[in-house]
Enoyl reductase (ER) domain-containing protein (Linum tenue), 337 residues
Amino acid sequence: NRTIVTRNYIDGAPKESDFEVRSRVVSLSREPAGSVIVRSLYVSIDPYQLTRMKSDSSSQSYSSLATGIEVDCYGVGKVVASGDPEFEEGDLVGGLLAWGEYCVLKPGAMFRKLDPMGFPLSHHVGALAFSGLTAYAGLFEVGKAKKGEKVFVSAASGSVGHLVGQFAKLHGCYVVGSAGSKAKVELMKEKLGFDDAFNYKEEPDLKATLKKYFPEGIDVYFDNVGGEMLEAAVDNMNAFGRVAVCGVISEYTGKGRKAAPDMMDVIFRRITIRGFLAADFMCVFPDFMSAACEHLGSGKMVSLEDISIGLDSIPSAFVGLFDGGNLGKKIVQIAAE
Ligand code: NDP
């Protein structure tokens, strides 16, 4: 079994040389009774993993990742050997797998049988899994978006962002997204139905840019990036506006400065700034799934996926997240279905 591990802690931007392939023999007879061995098919590549790879990651809320240990991640796979009577060879499962060809799921591991419900398996790593839940819960439970409100989304062509924008449009909101290239901006406007979009890399004054796109102010800001964009959004929030802080990717590599929004604006405009973790919102998972399946099934919502092939493409796929290399959900297909 080949897996991707980190060679060292990563305190700045990740490089492909920070990772290496390790091999180990996987056999049910070596594992605790009740274990299940799964062949990975599709695995998720996520920015938050970088915060786990830092030397001081103990200060983060996500569990830290020691070097040389296989990287756990959400994924979809097929059972190849089972010591658990609930699972048999050939079952499709979704859950916490790993950046590896096979993974051993010990008793108590977080995974379940997967019914694809007629959707491509890759959707069950993104739009019909945590990316979708994050978008749905952040927009409606944290951002409390209402019909007719003005919603701004950053990293809006990414895995979470492109779903936030589409959920908001289907809910009757006015939606503007920001992303880092002309092609991404065009895609948001032409394929995803955003009302408008802009390339933040071409905008020297983000506060003025947001004023231009939201002359009547922002009601909900879905923040994927933190840093200067968060400051600019707070500067443009309406009274009683809500900021759903999903992630601060511009701060993960240490290159961008940490956000310092004007707190007098927060006070006088009674703005709510609330961080959240998708895992806190498993209670809305059934509502989210029914909405997402309906929208995807009817073609009103598109799941953008950026799929690289093969275990060896994991390091470059991961590195690409931090320079805007991906369009939609970044997934690596480890094996054919
Ligand atoms: P994406 O698919 O959006 O990939 C990352 C994107 O972020 C890149 O494509 C890039 O797009 C953009 N980006 C990278 N560096 C910067 C930067 N310095 N400034 C601005 N944008 C940048 O990832 P996800 O959708 O998986 O995650 C989006 C955010 O949500 C992340 O911050 C992540 O940590 C967070 N998250 C939080 C969860 C939660 O439970 N709270 C769950 C899942 C994700 P571009 O070309 O536009 O720059």
User: Anything to note?
Assistant: The chain has two domains: 2-126+303-333, 130-279. Residues 18 and 69 are 13 Å apart (CA to CA). DSSP finds ten helices and 15 strands in the chain.
